[in-house]
Amino acid sequence: MTEVGPTEVARGRGARTPDNRVIGGVNNVYAVRVLELSTPAMIEAPIRFYVTEHADGSADLS
Length: 62
Hints:
The structure is a single chain. The protein contains two helices and four strands. By secondary structure, it is α+β, with helices and mostly antiparallel strands.
């Protein structure tokens, strides 16, 4: 699993953005197979989910 919050970085630069989070997950068996074929290809292996919060507290998952 990976997780990054672009919101914090943007706010640190003075930008106003909705709260959001990028979450990545990969199956370990699949990751090993990818690495056996090509180490650089591993950058494409995680499935990425993007969660964006709305002002009313609801959120979208993309």
